[in-house]
Amino acid sequence: MPLDFFEKIESHLENKLPFVVYRKPNEQAVTAICQQDDELHYLSDYTETGFVFAPFDSSSTTVLLKLDQVLRFTDFEDEEIVKSESNREETCTKQKAFHLDLVKKGIAEINVGNFDKVVLSRRIQLNMKTPPLALFRSLLHEYKTAFCYLWYHPKVGLWLGATPEILLTMRNRKITTMSLAGTQNYNNEENPEWGNKELEEQQLVTEYIFNALEGKVSDLERTPTESVRAGSLLHLRTKISGNSKQENLGEVIRALHPTPAVCGMPKEKTKAFILTNENYDREFYTGFLGELNFKTERNRNNRPRNTENNVYRSISKNTTLFVNLRCMQMNEDKVSIYVGGGITKDSNPEKEWVETVAKSKTMLKVIKAVE
């Protein structure tokens, strides 16, 4: 990557100006959006164009970065980074006890019929002075199939992550979303086996999203459930698609966010339980982020010989939003890593703790690689 690309981003950070730099899954191009002042803009009604950053609590405001300057590097060359499997997290007996108790509370609520599923999380805090851009480059190396990003606003904070989950894509009228649930370690198996707990959780999430979109999205379809890899982990995924009007985009997003994969079912009851019982503020963890109403121009005729017809171009409006999972927040010499898991009636508190430890390695590996 040309030095001046990162130099411009570094300059923006030093001058305390908002920016985001990111790479979409399975792509080489890296994009940077730089806002030229430190004004804090908020999303109004999803008709705006810009890069959005939304918190978990859907009643809070969503930040919008303006497209003052867009930089794009199309052929990012990967760099070899010394890998380490070392895990910096030291198990805190007090935090483990709190999380186990939290999971037990969640299971109790399910057993009395208040919830079908609830997603419970915890925060890991470490001392660290690694430059943010070094961490971002480590993310790019480690997680090629994830949405990798570094986001900064001086009045909000600095976040970065590598998320495997799409909240929603919309191109003109075509909408696609997904349900992502269940977790196990990747062991080089082509056809991994899944337990009843994970399969039931995936089915619950899929049905909930499908029902939430009925009446808002027409021609709804779903794909067969498949196993997908995210770094060293595997998840179950089902894609759901249909058609909607651009003016309904806000309604569709409000129906989806927060999804059952990061909150629970039913949404309002589980969100209230999380906000009351998790004992910390998720902020933008399990929120969403991405491109809102970006315009793409394409030739209607792709045959080079018919150059006289190339003047006819089509302009599409595209939105691509990702759920903010596998992320961390940086604050001076400290970093906060966020991890969680879906709780159902079949959950085992000790196994749920172990799952959060496995998920924490996504960000811990990135930190270790640049120390």
UniProtKB/TrEMBL annotation:
UniProt xrefs under Gene3D superfamilies: Anthranilate synthase (3.60.120.10)
Annotated Pfam families: Chorismate_bind (PF00425)
Signal peptide range: none
Record-annotated Chorismate-utilising enzyme C-terminal domain positions: 99-295, 314-359
InterPro entries per UniProt: ADC_synthase (IPR005801), Chorismate_C (IPR015890)
Entry protein name: Isochorismate synthase
